[in-house]
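ok, trying the design again with the full structure, not the truncated one.
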């Protein structure tokens, strides 16, 4: 049994990112599902892993790590040659900027806690949720598309191999499709995501491959 344990939720974008990274680096791991809709992330056992009560949490190298991008950067720094972050400082800054545009600008306002609050304020919760998701995912991906409009973009978000930016993009495109976001305004981002999704590390991390008998959001 692997000493590396990922505490995650199948549809969590942040967990999806880390699953891709672990697969890319061929790090064997065991997955432990944390059912967000059942409130397992607020129980004492999980709060001991992550005081924020979020997923993912990754137990690796004798440490318990939290925050998906911090985890991915740790993996990049401790597994040389991963390619998740470029060696050149300017290129590395660009990959971080692309990653943060999704993980820090789109994701926080579309996560479970925020969306549940939005639904509670509406007389038509499902319609409010769908409209909210389409608005903020659509706007965010539109800005991301403009960030890709540089010569540094290649087959992937930066150059011709996947980086941390692609690990952030693919789960967000998954969410966009789920909420019927119009992707015609971001053809480059959508095309990059499709290229990534054909790679085994990405395909194996897809939520449909990781779903267990837990709640659906």
């Amino acid at each position: 049994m692997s000493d590396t344990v990922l505490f995650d939720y199948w549809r969590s974008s942040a967990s999806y990112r880390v699953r891709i990274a672990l697969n890319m680096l061929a790090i064997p791991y065991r997955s432990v599902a944390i059912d967000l809709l059942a409130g397992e992330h607020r129980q004492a056992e999980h709060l001991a892993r992550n005081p924020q009560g979020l997923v993912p949490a990754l137990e690796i190298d004798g440490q318990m790590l939290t925050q998906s991008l911090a985890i991915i950067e740790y993996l990049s720094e401790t597994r040389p040659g991963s390619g998740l972050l470029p060696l050149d400082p300017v290129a590395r800054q660009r990959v971080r900027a692309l990653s943060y545009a999704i993980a820090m600008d789109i994701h926080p306002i579309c996560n479970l806690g925020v969306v549940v609050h939005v639904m509670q304020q509406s007389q038509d919760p499902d319609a409010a949720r769908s409209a909210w998701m389409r608005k903020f995912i659509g706007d965010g991906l539109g800005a991301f598309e403009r960030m890709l409009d540089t010569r540094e973009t290649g087959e992937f978000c930066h150059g011709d191999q996947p980086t941390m930016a692609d690990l952030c993009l693919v789960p967000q495109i998954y969410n966009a499709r789920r909420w019927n976001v119009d992707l015609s305004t971001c053809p480059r981002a959508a095309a990059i995501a499709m290229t990534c999704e054909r790679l085994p590390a990405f395909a194996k991390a897809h939520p449909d491959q990781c779903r267990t008998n837990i709640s659906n959001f």
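Keeping the full-length input from now on. Residues 89-202 form a domain with the Glutathione S-transferase Yfyf (Class Pi); Chain A, domain 2 fold (CATH 1.20.1050.10).
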